[in-house]
Design a protein that fits this description.
The chain is an alpha+beta fold. The protein is built from 9 helices and 6 strands; from the N terminus they run ααβααββααββαβαα. It folds into 2 domains: about 60 residues, no CATH class; about 210 residues, no CATH class. The strands form 2 sheets. The chain has a 4-stranded antiparallel β-sheet with strand order 2-3-1-6, with helices on both faces. It starts with a helix and ends in a 6-residue tail after the last helix.
């Protein structure tokens, strides 16, 4: 029975060549980044949802190449992009410290469960996506609760000069071709610039509509572009001031963030398959593609970036 079940599983796994039965090479779930590892992590996360319900906070912690710990280790003439070893080491140390602040010290409230993943991009620096489940007594239920954790406004440059400098440098959404597929329409897929809102509104099953008052605060960048509260990415004032980097903090009231966290981050690496026809013809009598070998597929198709 076990032998028949193995044949049945193989046939229904998408492999049409039955001659290759018994020769499939797979990557186990213990190999980080493999399809089975990704699926297992997603199932574990959904088990947390089943026990604790919808998550409460979604936080994205981004590496800052201008951190003093990075710059003081660079040789003359070097930039952060020249030393990915230093960048990744500093980022790992700082994100571990920040994760402890959230989960153990409870800067957002008592955490009963959390999931965190690291995303390495082709361009740009690594960042950590994390979602938190808070204790029942510490959940954000009202607009006032949300305002104590998340802000979406430019801070007062006189009262909070350090926070103002960090927010205007790292937390302003600058639209580019990546968020505007059609530049002529001027439509940002993230919805920026956001409309002005006099007070925060908690929406059922969606992220809150954060307070963005039309208070006249304007920031003009070096390129001449002007930004207002409509362009601010939601952040936590304390974390942004202390960490001096881009830290997007948003209250979430749906399980969609869990799907984003694992299925989007672990969607797989960009890759392309192609064949070269030498001599102007294709030999139809050539042997069929070799047996499925997930190790070769992963190694040959993986993109390893500079950072």
């Amino acid at each position: 029975m076990h032998t028949f079940q193995g044949v049945y599983d193989h046939v229904h796994a998408g492999d049409a060549n039955l001659e290759e039965i018994g020769r499939r090479v797979i990557l186990p779930a213990t190999f980080i980044g493999s399809p089975r590892d990704q699926f297992q992590l997603y199932q574990d996360s959904m088990a947390i949802v089943r026990k604790y319900g919808k998550p409460d906070l979604f936080v994205t912690y981004t590496c800052n190449p201008n951190w003093a710990e990075i710059n003081r280790e660079l040789l003359p003439g070097q930039t952060a992009s020249n030393r990915p070893d230093i960048v990744n080491r500093v980022f790992d140390l700082r994100r571990r410290e920040f994760l402890d602040e959230m989960t153990k010290e409870g800067i957002f409230g008592r955490v009963v469960a959390f999931v965190a993943v690291i995303e390495f991009q082709k361009r740009g620096f690594p960042h950590m996506h994390s979602i938190l489940w808070l204790h029942t007594e510490d959940k954000f239920r009202t607009a006032e609760d949300v305002d104590t954790v998340v802000s979406a406004e430019i801070p007062d440059p006189v009262r909070e000069p350090q926070l103002y400098e960090t927010v205007t440098r790292t937390m302003m959404h600058r639209c580019s071709h990546r968020c505007q597929p059609d530049p002529q329409s001027g439509t940002c897929k993230y919805g920026y610039p956001k409309p002005f809102v006099e007070e925060t509104a908690v929406l059922e099953g969606a992220c809150p509509r954060y307070q963005r008052k039309d208070n006249g605060r304007v920031f003009t960048a070096t390129d001449g572009r002007t930004y207002t509260n409509r362009d601010v990415v939601p952040y936590n004032p304390y974390v942004t001031k202390v960490q001096a980097t881009h830290v997007n903090a948003e209250c979430c009231f749906s399980i969609g963030s869990v799907k984003y966290l694992l299925k989007y981050v672990y969607k797989g690496h960009d890759r392309a398959s192609f064949a070269i026809d030498i001599g102007g013809h294709f030999d139809s009598a050539a042997p069929q593609a070799p047996a499925v070998n997930e190790i070769d597929d992963f190694v040959n198709g993986r993109w390893v970036s500079q950072i």
